[in-house]
Amino acid sequence: MVIPFSRTKRAAAPWVRTRLRSAPGAALALALLVAVTACLAAAFPRALERYEDAGLRHSVEQVPHFRSVVTLSAPTPLPNLPQDQREQALRPATVKRQYDSVIGAVRHPFDPDPRQSSYGVTTSVNQEVPEPWLPRPSGLPARVCLVAQAGLADHARLSQGRLPRASASVTATTPEVEAAVSADTAKSMRIEVGSVLHVPGAGRDALAVRITAIVEPRDRDGAYWATDTLLRTPVLMRVAPVDPESPRYWLGALLLPSEAAPALLGTEGRPYRYWRLAPDPHTLRHRDLGALESALAALTSGPDLQRIRTATDPLTDARTGLDDVLASYSRLHDGVSPLIAVAAFGSGTVAVVVLALAGGLAADRRRTELALLRARGASLAGLAARLLAETAVVAVPAGALGLAVAMRALPGARALPAVLAALAVTLVAGTALPLRAAAAHRVVRIPALRQDVTSVRPSRRRTVAELTLVAVAAGAVVTLRRQGTSGGSGDQLISAAPVLVGVIAALLLVRLYPFPLRGLAGQAGRLRGVVSHLALARAGRRTSASAVLPLLALLTALTTASFGGSVLAGIGETRSQSAILAVGADARLESTVGPLPAGLAERVRRISGVRDVTAVSIAYQAKPNDGRQAVPVVGADPDRYAELTSRTGLGAFSEGVLKTDRRESGSGAVLPAVASPRVADAHGSSPFPVTMEDGSSVTVRIVLVRDSTPAVPGADFLVVDRAGLDATAAKPTTLLLTGPEADGRALRETAGGEVSVRLRADERARYVDSPLQSGVEHLYTAAVAAGAGYAVLALLLSLLRAAPERVALLARLRTMGLTRAQGRRMLVLESLPQAVLAAVGGVLTGWCAILLLAPGVDLTAVALPPSVVPLKQTLLSPDAWSLTVPTLAVMAVTVGIAGVQASWAGRKGAVRELRAGDTR
């Protein structure tokens, strides 16, 4: 007789409290899983935002200030205006009022830094000063730039004298003004306190400028001083900058008080007003990048500039290089964002699958209880609501705790993405059990009979669902393969590609799983022992539906780990290759003035860590065919240089290629040469003369073409046997060292001041230019580690499903004579089919995903800074270690868990498992 389910009587104890008290361990495990997952999910967008903001600030801070500062300038007041109006236009009150108008026209998020922004009046034409005591390197008189920049007292530290002063009545006819100079200017131009410089006047006597102070910049590298470095550092100029033999003269800046600006109208300097807006790096945010670019465009060439012209001068102009800096950062971010999305999508999918797997495990564990409640009349909605309340009591506080930890650990980022991520985790964790239970118990029935994967045919509904999912995933993958990553849809597809490949592989492998099991079980049945047959029979006992989620988690985690490992390996390989290409070896010693000192090679060879030294002579200005185009000619010992090319992988060739026949040596000998493709195309394979830097001449013939060579990083070179060169041209100028552990400090001490020392390790470290680049590596490593951890957890949960059944089976088999070693071997063999399936599938899916995404993933943006131009694009390629290590780890974890479980079960007595009434 069926007892009806009562809806009117109130339970003696609340459902939630009773269930939590009956299974505190399961509740605690769920809370821990939700808290950790919510913390990781909330931390990811906050960490990414911090790296993005730091990368944007670094991009702005690393460029010279004259590129990042927005400079607005108004020309000299028109000469047809009354003199008092021209003077009034340059007075500090007027320029300050116009500066405030400029600041008021600037749109957020471009927020100028008031401490480093500046304004004032300066001359556009540098004036010659006739003082004979000023230095004259080529006999030319020194020149000065007159600058009346506001805020000198706040940005300078007085070194000597007193700050210059001027009255409010200064005009264009004022005969004398006071000024200050920087300490560097005073030292280089021999200016002292009390010195007087006479600037030629325009229609009047010379303007006398008396130096009253020598000042030191408070922030030498700040925008106030560094936007125009002439304010703090004088320059030795050339009359013709492109001619190295052109006469030189000194150019320095005289710092006048703001009140003295009208006096500049009495000179030929053509004074103009300027307002320099230095961006505040602390206000730069990646999320405001689009608005920042719009505000900058409006300020330099849009409506904001028109308003500024109305407030200042109709001819006011704006210029800046900040837009190019933002564009460079945007290109860097566009290059790394697909890689970040792949890591986030892969690890996030694994986490969601594990949460769903945990809910499914709880539903399977309580299958009998829930079936009994349904048989007693419990509604499906009421049962799901109670289970939802039960999990929500645990998941909501745990999710809030994980969110709070992430917010506290990573401050300074937006809260909304983190809250949404933690909320999504809590929602999945809270609804996994109710939804799984509702799906399993939608129909009231007795507990189902055992369904083995090797004997039960999947339902038509499941077949249709799987085929639909495979078709959608395959269509998305084909779309990605055809269109690449250009466009927004490509970015979403490239992010989901590893997961899509994992979904396809998981469904296909689960379908193919029964066939090898049937074959193995048939073969094992013919063996005399029972362990193998029992293990394969147990491996096929799990339903194919229950194997999809664990297999999907494992395949997604393995694919993400393989993809991430290949990305990290590709980044490291790109940096190493670029560093070796730039240096030519593990270390490079090169003379800046002629040949290397005698005996330096032997002294360097004795330094710790140096394994080999290859000496070469490089003539950078050698000219083939007596032409104007110079081509670097490398003179090297054929044996040692051939070994070096083989070790570095830069244009490797055999030692016999360069060797010169000693019987033909002499002035008419033709030296075989290795050349770059461009040089080979220009000169062909016929012998041609080359004039060396010392005036000697050799005849060479190109016998081999290589894209690169260790001695010369450029695209043009000729490599010949050093023995065939003139004695002067053959003297070594460069040492190429082999030895990654070479002591850099000892090398620099041994080399001396006239020999430059470059280490490949230092060059490689320089390539990590932006916090966004290093942040991507850290996030990728963390995502791969998190995905691997969740994969192990998924494997553990899948094994825990059958743990009670395994323990009971071992207890029964021990009464039949099964030894502990045989039981341990049986559990290991039972777990191996799924592990082998996941391992093989993981290698295949990882390899397929990498090959699929390789044409659309360029690692150059992550590996190298924008200032380094690689010889070729760096594409993603499979890394053997990244493919095999995660697979072997899955196998090891599977065998380890099975062995631990068997040992634990062996220590327990069989009485509890074989007690009367046992329903296992």
Short account of what is shown:
Helix 1 crosses helix 13, helix 2 packs antiparallel against helix 25 and helix 11 runs parallel beside helix 14. The chain has 920 residues and is of the alpha+beta class.
Task: Output the keywords.
920 residues, alpha+beta, 4 domains, ten-stranded mixed sheet, eight-stranded mixed sheet, flat, disordered C terminus
Shape: flat
Contiguous runs where pLDDT drops below 50 for at least 5 residues:
485-490, 916-920
If you average the pLDDT, what whole number results? 83
Spatial extent as radius of gyration: 39 Å
Topology:
Blueprint: H1 15-22, H2 24-62, H3 65-68, E1 70-74, H4 83-90, H5 92-105, E2 118-123, E3 127-128, E4 143-149, H6 152-155, E5 156-161, E6 176-182, H7 183-189, E7 196-199, E8 207-217, H8 223-226, E9 235-238, E10 248-255, E11 271-277, H9 289-301, H10 303-311, E12 317-319, H11 322-365, H12 367-375, H13 380-409, H14 416-440, H15 460-483, H16 488-512, H17 514-525, H18 531-539, H19 544-583, E13 587-591, H20 600-605, E14 612-619, E15 623-624, E16 633-636, H21 638-648, E17 670-675, H22 677-683, E18 688-691, E19 697-705, E20 718-721, E21 734-738, H23 744-751, E22 755-759, H24 760-766, H25 771-801, H26 803-815, H27 820-853, H28 860-863, H29 880-907
